[in-house]
Design goal:
heterodimer, A: about 100 residues, alpha+beta, Alpha-Beta Plaits, two-stranded antiparallel sheet, 3 helices, about 20% helix, B: alpha/beta, FAD/NAD(P)-binding domain, D-Amino Acid Oxidase, Chain A, domain 2, 3 domains, nine-stranded mixed beta sheet, about 25% strand, globular, binds flavin-adenine dinucleotide, binds iron/sulfur cluster, 4Fe4S_Fe_S_CS (chain A), nitrogen fixation (chain A), transport (chain A), iron (chain A), iron-sulfur cluster binding (chain A)
Chain lengths: ~100, ~425
Amino acid sequence: MSIEPSVRVEDKLFYNRYLVDAGRAHIKVRPHTTPSPELLSMLKACPARCYELSDKGQVEITVDGCIECGTCRVICEASGDIEWSYPRGGYGVLFKFG
Amino acid sequence: MIEEKFDAIVVGAGMAGNAAALTLAQRGLKVLQLERGEYSGSKNVQGAILYADMLEKLIPDFREDAPLERHLVEQRFWMMDDRSHTGLHYRSDDFNEEKPNRYTIIRAQFDRWFSQRVREAGATVLCETTVTELAQDAYGKVIGVRTDRADGEIHADVVVLAEGVNGLLGTRAGLRARPQPDKVALAVKEMHFLPRETIEARFNLRGDEGVVIEAAGTISRGMTGMGFIYANKECISLGIGCLVADFQRTGETPYGLLDRFKRHPSVAPLIEGSEVKEYAAHLIPEGGFNAIPQLFGDGWVVVGDAAQLNNAIHREGSNLAMTSGRIAAEAIFQVKSRKDPMTADNLSLYKKMLDESFVIKDLKKYKDMPALMHTQSQNFFLTYPELVSRAMQNFLRVDGTPKVEKERTTFKSFVKARSWSGLFGDAFRLARAWR
Ligand SMILES: Cc1cc2nc3c(=O)[nH]c(=O)nc-3n(C[C@H](O)[C@H](O)[C@H](O)COP(=O)(O)OP(=O)(O)OC[C@H]3O[C@@H](n4cnc5c(N)ncnc54)[C@H](O)[C@@H]3O)c2cc1C
Ligand code: SF4
């Protein structure tokens, strides 16, 4: 089994254009003590790696790099783990090519 | 509040929304179209192959000024294992026709152009506006929308929901279920820039000729999914997508998968030395016929990806979106011309017309495929590609082994991996789902 180089998502997001709506996160994680399996799966499944584990073992989100794909909504909205909306009109990721 | 009332409000300026707004405006209806992006296309992601026929029905002269990349003269299908691919290529000079049948496009640029045509037809297009909610009366009839602008509610006789696969409005209003992890795929995609001549040399192209590669196999690591490589004029669209449920189950990362695809020995030489300029991700509806929700109701219709009208087997979505948008608009126009109200009864005309079109007929044909691909994903995306590769290599390597023995080894490896009944079962199930 060969060792795979780790992929730096941050570098990929750097290619993209964003208009960040400061102070208005469009996705929120519901406060929790122990993360649900759904929430934990987002650490891997989010293509922009917006979800991270805090020192206290809770799942946190930083939406700045979000590409608005909706994957976390599909996985986590039903269980009530997150609140999902689109950013305000004009804000968020702005694809030049798409 | 915007006081004036519209004949129709179209939510979304993607393929479906633009087709609907254009058709409605062309027939003289008063249309308002709302789009959350900075411009039409700024939120949209696609491969992307454009099917000329469905656009021609809307804009016959589109070839004159639409931003088209390359017309396709060749299609490649690759079945991949970790080090090889077995390919099926179809190339024909017939595709170098006066009015080509398929093109590659860049969605952000194409949608912008499409939206300009919608404006010219007379629709009011308002970008940078996220619709937050549908407005309903006491009986649940949809009477308009609410947006994140200070204007409050805007009213219309009918709302066309063209909000795409991750549409929030329809689900928030309880008109349809939210997308399920086993019915949508997550695709990640990069844009690789290279000089035009380099692309033409690497893909064996002349002038504006184009080629696309669809790839399946161990690149998806046993998950239901596919990769794609599309040649544009000066860049290559490259991406891979798998079912969200499979990502959830396996813990594979989308960018890890994309990276492995890029480093595959069959792929790496095609993009060597390229400059990446964008990294995007988007969902694709994969549930097919069985996932289509209720398509109309009092004061509303739903079109395109929001209605799961997407043919994942053939990678067709934008043409189903355009067609459903156009047909919905034509149905609305008919109801309006009869001066009838936009009730569910009257709007059922949309479904009737859609059932008669290729959209529903194609989706019906493949209604059992999504479930089969999902339950058999290990076999179709791991076992078979590896077996085929071994068989091909065994067949081609000349090493003094008698051919009879080689054939026996190949047969044995297939039977060992899947057993006779497994092999026949898979073939039978595939044939039945394809029929
Ligand atoms: C990676 C990838 C490759 C693909 N390749 C192909 C291909 O090669 N050929 C093909 O035919 N199809 C392809 N498809 C499918 C195709 O992209 C879709 O089927 C098509 O875009 C659907 O059109 P739509 O108008 O329904 O949705 P979209 O094009 O997604 O448009 C929805 C629009 O609604 C807007 N919107 C959503 N919610 C709101 C709101 N609340 N308020 C305001 N605006 C809102 C969005 O910003 C967006 O502009 C591909 C898809 C992906 C992801
Ligand atoms: S929408 Fe997509 S990119 Fe944004 S946080 Fe959710 S999974 Fe990540």
